């Protein structure tokens, strides 16, 4: 499997495009700039299978409908945020000046259980990692030694918890119980900023010490 990190939009939210030898691809968090996403897909001649969302804040969903309609693919999201795509109050786009209101279509499928899941031919382990938002999930590919953490865990930082449904203590609990239990050589692909690793965050992330 190969993957690319693609920072998009004014907040430089990281979208991820994962693809295999058959050129099937999974699109995670297409937050903005659908043309940039389409350009990469077309250049590589990829075949999109689905969109998976780590959560439904506005900066992670801005290009969802454009990509969904272009490739006629389903969108997967945790059930706790099933109405967020179409509600600017819930997805946060109504609360930031200069941000267009996002009112997208509902997700096609909802995650309701943790564990090994299959999404349109892709198999990975799903962790519920709430705290930044109530429906935040992390996506773990064991063989590739990588986890897409959304806005739960960043390099030397953690997600903000002052938005709708945020809970600082719950976020720290999610990180410690779900992410820091992964092998230390696991790459962490965050929702913002550079790629890091479980080992790096265990050793140097100031927000995780003393919990």
TrEMBL record:
Protein name (Swiss-Prot/TrEMBL): Metallo-beta-lactamase family protein
Pfam families: Lactamase_B (PF00753)
An example molecular function term from Gene Ontology annotations: hydroxyacylglutathione hydrolase activity
Cofactor(s) this protein requires: Zn(2+)
Origin species: Jeotgalibacillus campisalis
Domain Metallo-beta-lactamase: 12-192
SUPFAM superfamilies: Metallo-hydrolase/oxidoreductase (SSF56281)
E.C. code: 3.1.2.6
Keywords: Hydrolase, Metal-binding, Zinc
SMART domains recorded: Lactamase_B (SM00849)
UniProt-listed CDD domains: metallo-hydrolase-like_MBL-fold
Enzyme class: hydrolase
Matches recorded under InterPro entries: MBL_Glyoxalase_II, Metallo-B-lactamas, RibonucZ/Hydroxyglut_hydro
């Amino acid at each position: 499997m190969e993957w690319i990190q693609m920072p998009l939009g004014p907040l430089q939210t990281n979208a991820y495009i994962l693809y295999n030898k058959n050129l099937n691809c999974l699109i995670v968090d297409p937050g903005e700039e659908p043309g940039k996403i389409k350009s990469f897909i077309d250049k590589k001649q990829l075949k999109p299978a689905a969109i998976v969302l780590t959560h439904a804040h506005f900066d992670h969903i801005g290009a969802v409908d454009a990509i969904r309609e272009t490739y006629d693919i389903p969108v997967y999201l945790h059930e706790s945020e099933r109405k967020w795509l179409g509600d600017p109050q819930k997805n946060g786009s109504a609360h930031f000046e200069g941000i267009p209101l996002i009112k997208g279509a509902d997700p096609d499928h909802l995650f309701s259980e943790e564990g090994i899941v299959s999404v349109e031919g892709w198999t990975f382990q799903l962790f519920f990692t709430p705290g930044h938002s109530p429906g935040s999930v992390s996506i773990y590919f064991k063989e590739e030694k990588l986890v897409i953490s959304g806005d739960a865990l960043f390099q030397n930082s953690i997600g903000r918890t002052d938005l709708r449904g945020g809970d600082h203590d719950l976020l720290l609990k999610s990180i410690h119980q779900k992410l820091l239990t992964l092998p230390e050589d696991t790459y962490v692909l965050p929702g913002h900023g550079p790629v890091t690793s479980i080992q790096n965050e265990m050793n140097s992330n100031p927000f995780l010490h003393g919990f």
